[in-house]
Design goal:
It contains twelve helices and 19 strands. By secondary structure, the protein is of the alpha/beta class. A hairpin with a 2-residue loop joins strand 3 and strand 4 (52-58). The structure holds zinc ion.
């Protein structure tokens, strides 16, 4: 049966598109990016049975009984991944208003908002995210873990999540939730239960506490940051001994380590300690990049974060404006050097610094700084799957992988902004939604009722 887009919309609206476990679907499009090759495949066909891809290639025969979805002049790709998000937060407006909001909103209300951020993210084509830090001041709630579980159980529509819980950092550092507030406003100094730890033993305790409470990945702040009031952006915040303990304990528990790091010294020490990815990396010098290359450490550049802040500088206090300017001025050259040196680049945006769902704007920033379009696409698919340790399951369009498949109009290798207009999203064989999009936003996007209700 051949189903055109309009007919599919009607079917979805009638609610008769609920997908059986072994349903056979043939997705067709003019092109396909498979997540690892250097060229697009023409006349692409991807065959999906249930939640898995059974075949993908050029001009494949459509098996009998398959439902054909012909997406026309579009490019199929593996679902995008974002290795650096904060789905339980929104820091995108006026800084001081957001700071006050942290104190005003109940954690339950913030959790409800997070469900909308999850939906916006997956509808933008990001079927997997790593969530690198979720904390609510003076609260012990693990909202990122709850969000991940609710999505996995089918209660909510959202991306597959690998979560870091609180993140780990030093007293007075980038992650100290009480930094910048009056002393003892919250009654006690934050401790390991808030992710704040000092000394190798306490760092190990914090790692164990986070894993106990559901962390899939360990995040730590090893240097200062832009959006924190009490620190300098590039100073080291953990000692080499603390970083060694952080990496050792995390790896013993089979968790990857992602470190927030702008400063060069902290980056060198973190790379030496064996972290899996450097997040941001703004001030890294070529010698530091050489160390990354040797060690195989990933760089997650989060260009969107500084781009957004620089575009709305008036939203931030003067001290943060100065930090943002310094980090942004340094990061473009650092990123160009990283491309030239062939550093492994993972796609990550720091979504929450800017509104959720705009993750794909990172692609153009990468390409504008010298990355090829195909390498940018790889960073958000095959590379991220490798960094996240889920390359066996997702990241490429290949037989046996989970059917996380998106489509975008035209050819993203000739216009990378096509990634911002994702027109079809399937996650684990279920259609999340589809419809044409414009640069201004979404039009005629149709959500599938098949994924709008809990399954357990
Ligand atoms: Zn972040």
């Amino acid at each position: 049966m051949k189903i055109t887009f309009r007919v599919l919309v009607i079917l979805l609206c009638l609610g008769i598109a609920a997908q059986a476990a072994d349903q056979l679907i043939a997705l067709k499009a003019a092109r396909m990016f498979d997540g690892k090759s250097n060229a697009l495949v023409q006349n692409a066909v991807v065959i999906v049975r249930g939640d898995k891809i059974v075949d993908a290639g050029s001009n494949l025969p459509v098996p009998s009984g398959a439902q054909v979805i012909d997406l026309g002049d579009a490019t199929l790709a593996p679902g995008f991944m974002d290795a650096h998000t904060h789905l339980t937060a929104d820091f995108s407006g006026n800084y001081n208003e957001r700071r006050l909001q942290q104190l005003d909103l109940n954690v339950s209300e913030q959790a409800i908002r997070a469900t909308a951020f999850a939906r916006a993210t997956v509808e933008a084509g990001f079927t997997t995210v790593r969530d690198l830090g979720s904390r609510f001041i003076a609260s012990q709630e693990f909202v990122d873990v709850a969000l991940r579980k609710s999505i996995n159980r089918g209660v909510l529509v959202g991306p597959r999540m690998l979560v870091a819980t609180k993140g780990i950092g030093a007293t007075g550092g980038h992650f100290d939730p009480s930094g910048g507030f009056r002393d003892f406003l919250f009654g006690r100094e934050p401790d390991y239960t808030d992710g704040i730890a000092n000394g190798p033993d306490e760092i190990r305790k914090a790692v164990r506490f986070e894993v106990k409470n559901g962390a899939d990945v360990i995040k730590a702040a090893v240097s200062g940051g832009v959006l924190s009031l009490g620190d300098e952006v590039d100073t080291p915040q953990l000692t080499p001994a603390e970083m060694t303990a952080l990496v050792d304990e995390s790896h013993r528990l089979r968790k990857k380590v992602a470190v927030h790091c702008h400063g060069d010294q902290a980056a060198r020490e973190a790379i030496e300690a064996g972290v899996d990815s450097i997040e941001h990396g703004s001030f890294m010098k070529p010698e530091t990049l050489t160390m990354m290359k040797k060690k195989g450490t990933f760089l997650t550049p989060t260009l969107m974060a500084s781009e957004w802040i620089m575009g709305k500088l008036d939203n931030y206090p003067p001290a943060l404006q100065a930090k943002a300017k310094a980090a942004t001025a340094a990061r473009s050259e650092m990123f160009r050097n990283a491309i030239k040196m062939g550093i492994k680049i993972s796609f990550g945006t720091d979504a929450a610094v800017f509104p959720h769902g705009q993750n794909a704007k990172e692609f153009k920033l990468m390409v504008d700084l010298g990355m090829s379009a195909i390498d940018a696409l790889k960073s958000a698919t095959g590379n991220d799957a490798e960094l996240l340790g889920i390359g066996q399951k997702v990241g490429t369009l290949e037989k046996g992988k989970l059917a996380d498949i998106i489509a975008m109009p035209g050819d993203p290798t000739s216009d990378i902004t096509a990634t911002e207009r994702v027109s079809f999203v399937m996650k684990e064989g279920k259609i999340i939604g589809q419809g044409p999009r414009t640069r201004q936003g979404t039009v005629e996007w149709t959500r599938s009722p098949a994924v709008a209700a809990p399954v357990d």
